[in-house]
Design goal:
heterodimer; A: alpha/beta; 6 strands; disordered C terminus; B: 934 residues; alpha+beta; globular
């Protein structure tokens, strides 16, 4: 067998290995329903912060815990315990992605990504106030 | 026609005209260069050169126009309003320029123009085809900023659009008001730049990165020219300096991104394997492979196909990177999130064109080309007619890869003899393949959102695959729900560290191999020295940094990177005899190995020194949770954190920034004297003798301490707790800050103390920026529902509803209740963080059985105000409002501190690598001149 063939075989083997490795090591997007159905599995859950509920962050007690309520894309509400300090401007977030597992009635998130609306979207919707028009 | 007041319509019209002119000139240049190639007539060449010059001038003028508009803050323009504001210092005007997509495309295009003009004057007999390729690319980029409508399809977004002309605003009443600029207050002040980008790195990182992106087009153009004209070997030599220029600039651009992340972003590191970072790294890896294979080809007439393949792939990957970043497909996977700019389809079309063009050329025979394009037309028709666009794109991609492989064997003859095992060319080839694999792994992992889209037509087979293999990832993929690995950084490291050590090992020994055949013995003799030195250094490091057990792989990488540094140094000194010109490659390789070494040490041995000092063990809550992230620091308290005592002193406001002064102190060992009292393990202890405490009280207790049986007579409050250290001399201050930005949200920026051998990095995770208090000096109250026996946490205290009781008649006087009031008293325990318990008795009073009378009770010691608001007998949960006195709580910050050891090796490596590539490029240009003369 030629060296180039050996090299080619090794290349293909490694490539296949990381294709499978990549798929089998993946997490999965889910809604709360699925996440609470399989509490042993880690999921990415997309949703938005429930602004009607309180965001509990008591750094004097523990600076590494934030508790809040999230509504997933199906409208299901769950209490969330996040193992992070409260992110800056959390209240303004438009959508959040939680990474973690269901635990009893709560969702325990180890990581959270959030998006703030004004950061990336153009807001060029102006309004001329009535008074301004009449002047 | 309305005469608008205060607008500057001239600039917008000028800009749009210039963009249109540059677009048309690029088109003209493309066609003229094509005909110049076909007919070889000089007047086509002159026309082409003239149109490219017009294109260059028009584009540069458009860039200047946009800059002038930003500089003068013409807020009636969308691009200016969105990216600039009145408060911005001049240096950030540049950052505004390329913050938005339109501006960044102009920047990219501008670099192409600059480099294109150099190419036009140096490419000689490759001019027609390479410049044609550059012009084609400029047409593509130009179309992204054109901003014209063809029927309903919008082509490009122009940066010169007025806000009132935006589609969503057209026809609104205010756009018909002539003096709208004066009447709408928002127009007096732009929205401004994202605070994260207000950093000096952001003025130089994007232009460098885009110069890197732009420069990849030039080796690509030579490869295309070689394919088109059948000069499958000749294109390589002139392309080499371009390729190394590109390696150097793109590499530095990527590392600058890392430096920016390290300094301005608060994720605590310089590389997070974020999709946006990866997108720029992937083409760099293939480009490095391409450049090396090209050099080999100059010495030994081999690896032509690999050089072509990697060069073409690099530019396709650059376009892919741009597509990933701008199209919004990354969606939820990146913190650098971008939303769809409405140009997704156009961007995709350009990307697919960039795939189709080289694929077509690589088919060589007319027949295969016909089949390919027939296929493309068929797929477009089927895709659009039957709404099977995704399937059509997948089929197109398969075809674009499969057909060139079929064609490959016909054109590229195999060398009669294989390259020998111990030859430079063989191992460089292996290296380029490893780089390709490394790039492929990053690309596959980063593209997961794309997989979900592309997998859609194959849901059925993927479900079958899931049934068969039970790998749940296949099911997620079938359902379009595949998510990135949750622990992204360690997942990438797991794959990339082995690639890194293969690459660094190759960097170490390959230079000692000759082209052709090398006797293994002579080769071994040459590298033995550096091998031994590196082994010794690695063993020393292993004990110093204690890499053990499962970190063995890190030790291997440590060894290979040190080996690479040593071997290249040795090579430059001993073999090249320190000849400056020839040692560029060695210097660049040393730099690269240093970058990896610095990254390895600083990330694998970074310590989060801000361990949680709270009473609450959060690891009990969930096994995935950890305590050692952030620490709470009360103002003026000094606590031991890692190897330092830290103290939060004060905050100050300067402009939009709030600075927090954090002091770091040396820990100094305490010495206890005989008779000293301390509190340890909940008891008062007395020192038996003079001693210096050890790390653990328990070990000291027997020999040095006795329990004070009767602590009466001692002032308990003044007895300190046992500690090993006390704060010593102040070493340094850090001033992490929070930038207040109402538009974008506040942003925390770290502050770092740099030593030669370590960095101490500190940033604010949370701080109370504004306190809402009422007139009586209390914070806003929190509603708490309590049943008897329930405990809840309110501020820093915990509260418990101990008992409920109706106020008896004989108590009425005591509680001052009117005769016809009905009153219930609640006994509420308040426990302070120090463990003291107080009790209050708020009343729920119902007057005339109707009206509830508020009766707030304030507990003085704790400063807690309790209001008993509602009784709910049906659920047993009663409503209370708790509020804390404002002065109750000391000001505090929550901060994170990380120590990065040896990170300077990384930065030194960056500089060395850059210098090395510059030396190598200079050498290559000299060589190619010499050959021309000869």
């Amino acid at each position: 067998m030629k060296k180039t063939h050996i090299v080619a075989i090794i290349l293909i083997a490694v490539a296949v290995a990381f294709m499978i490795g990549s798929v089998s090591d993946s997490s999965s997007y889910a809604d709360f329903k699925e996440a609470f159905q399989y509490p042993e599995k880690e999921f990415h859950v997309v949703g938005e912060l429930d602004r009607s509920a309180k965001i509990a962050y008591n750094p004097e007690i523990n600076p590494n815990v934030t508790k809040f309520t999230m509504i997933d894309n199906n409208g299901e509400r769950r209490k969330v315990v996040l193992n992070k300090s409260k992110p800056q401007d959390f209240e303004r977030s438009e959508s959040v992605v939680l990474i973690g597992k269901a635990n009893g009635e709560e969702f325990h998130a180890t990581e959270m990504l959030m998006k703030c609306p004004s950061k990336y979207k153009d807001e060029t919707q102006f309004e001329l106030k009535e008074t301004a028009l009449n002047n | 026609m309305i005469e608008y007041v205060g607008e500057h319509p001239f600039y917008g019209q000028l800009g749009e005209a210039l963009i249109a002119l540059s677009f048309v000139a690029a088109l003209l240049s493309t066609f003229s260069y094509y005909f110049s190639f076909r007919t070889n007539k000089i007047h086509f060449q002159s026309l082409a050169r003239a149109s490219f010059s017009v294109h260059s001038l028009a584009l540069a003028s458009a860039a200047i126009t946009l800059f002038v508009m930003l500089f003068n803050k013409f807020f009636e323009y969308n691009y200016v309003w969105t990216h600039a504001n009145t408060e911005m210092p001049l240096r950030y005007i540049f950052s505004c320029f390329w913050e938005g997509q339109e501006g960044s495309f102009i920047l990219w295009s501008f670099w192409n123009v600059l480099l294109g003009n150099i190419l036009m004057r140096t490419a000689r007999n490759f001019e027609s085809l390479t410049m044609m390729m550059v012009s084609i690319f400029q047409v593509c980029l130009g179309s992204m900023i054109l901003g014209v409508y063809i029927f309903d399809f919008k082509i490009g977004n122009s940066p010169f659009t007025l806000i009132r002309e935006l589609p969503e605003n057209v026809g609104l009443p205010w756009t018909l008001t002539p003096d709208y600029l004066e009447k709408i207050p928002e127009f007096s002040k732009g929205r401004g730049l994202n605070p994260l980008l207000q950093n000096y790195w952001m003025t130089i990182h994007p232009p460098t990165l885009f110069l890197g992106y732009a420069s990849t087009l030039f080796p690509f153009a030579f490869a295309i020219a070689g394919l088109w004209s059948g000069k499958l070997k000749e294109w390589i030599r002139p392309a080499i300096p371009w390729a190394f220029f590109s390696v150097s600039v793109l590499g530095i651009g990527i590392l600058m991104g890392g430096a920016w992340a390290y300094e301005a972003l608060s994720f605590g590191g310089f590389w997070a394997w974020d999709p946006v970072e990866n997108a720029s790294l992937i083409p760099w890896l293939t480009l490095v492979g391409a450049a090396h294979v090209m050099v080999v080809n100059q010495r030994k007439n081999i690896s032509q196909y690999t050089a072509l393949f990697l060069t073409l792939l690099t530019t396709i990957l650059v376009m892919y990177a741009s597509f990933l970043v701008h199209s919004g497909v990354l969606g939820d996977t990146s913190v650098h999130s971008f939303t769809d700019d409405g140009l997704m389809k156009q961007h995709l079309t350009i990307l697919l064109f960039m795939v189709a063009l080289p694929s077509t050329l690589m088919l060589f025979t007319r027949r295969l080309k016909m089949i390919y394009w027939g296929g493309i037309i068929f797929l477009s028709v089927v895709g659009f007619a039957f709404e099977m666009k995704v399937a059509a794109i997948v089929a197109f991609l398969v075809m674009s890869v499969a057909l060139p492989i079929l064609a490959y064997k016909k054109v590229f003859v195999k060398p009669e003899k294989e390259e020998p095992l111990w030859s430079r060319e063989f191992w460089i080839f292996i290296g380029s393949m490893v780089l390709l694999l490394s790039a492929a792994q990053i690309a596959l992992e980063t593209s997961k959102p794309i997989w979900n889209i592309l997998a859609e037509p194959f849901a059925g087979p993927l479900m079958d695959l899931y049934e068969w293999t039970k790998i749940s990832g296949f099911r997620s993929l079938a359902e379009g729900k595949l998510a990135p690995n949750s622990d992204r950084i360690s997942h990438f490291n797991k794959w990339q560290i082995p690639f890194a050590f293969v690459i660094t090992a190759l960097i170490a020994f390959t230079q000692f191999l000759r082209y052709g055949k090398t006797e293994f013995k002579t080769f071994a003799k040459k590298i033995l020295g550096s091998l031994i030195v590196s082994l010794v250094l690695t063993l020393a490091a292993a004990t110093q940094l204690s890499y053990e057990g499962d970190e063995f792989i890190l030790l291997v990488l440590f060894f290979t990177t040190v080996f690479a540094v040593m071997a290249n140094f040795d090579y430059a000194v001993r073999i090249l005899k320190g000849k400056f010109d020839a040692s560029g490659a060695s210097v660049a390789h040393i730099g690269f190995a240093l970058v990896l070494l610095g990254a390895l040490i600083s990330t694998s041995r970074s310590i989060k020194i801000s361990e949680n000092a709270s009473r609450f063990d959060i690891e009990q809550l969930s096994e995935d949770f950890s305590n050692n992230e952030d620490v709470l620091l009360f103002k003026n308290d000094t606590i031991l954190m890692g190897d330092y005592f830290v103290s939060y002193r004060d905050r100050s406001k300067e402009g939009v920034n709030v600075y927090y002064k954090v002091e770091y102190f040396e820990p100094e060992p305490i010495s206890y004297r005989q008779g000293d009292h301390v509190i340890a393990r909940g008891v008062v202890m007395r020192a038996i003798d003079d001693h210096v405490p050890g790390p653990d009280f328990l070990l000291d207790q027997k020999d040095h301490w006795e329990i004070v049986q009767d602590p009466r007579g001692l002032v308990l409050d003044s007895i300190p707790r046992w500690t090993q250290f006390k704060p010593g001399e102040k070493i340094f201050d850090l001033n992490p800050r929070i930038q207040l930005n109402p538009e974008f949200g506040n942003v925390a920026e770290p502050s770092t103390k740099r030593y030669w051998n370590r960095d101490i990095y500190t940033h604010i995770r949370w701080a109370e920026l504004e306190v809402d208090t009422d007139a009586t000096g209390f914070r806003s109250a929190t509603e708490v529902l309590l049943s008897v026996g329930d405990t809840a946490i309110v501020g820093s205290n915990s509260v418990r509803l101990n008992q409920l009781a109706v106020v008896q008649d004989d108590e009425r006087e005591k509680y001052r209740i009117a005769p016809n009031d009905l009153a219930v008293k609640a006994r509420i325990g308040i426990k302070t963080p120090q463990g003291e318990v107080y009790e209050v008795e708020p009343l729920y009073i119902l007057r005339d059985s109707l009206l509830s009378v508020p009766d707030p009770v304030i507990q003085d010691e704790t400063g807690v105000r309790v209001n008993f608001d509602k009784i709910d007998p049906s659920t047993g949960k009663h409503t209370f409002y708790f509020a804390e006195r404002y002065t109750n709580r000391k000001e505090f910050i929550v901060m994170q501190a990380i120590q990065f050891p040896m990170i300077n090796i990384l930065w030194i490596g960056c500089v060395v690598m850059f210098l090395g590539t510059v030396m190598a490029i200079r050498h290559r240009i000299k060589l190619s001149r010499k050959r021309k003369v000869a």
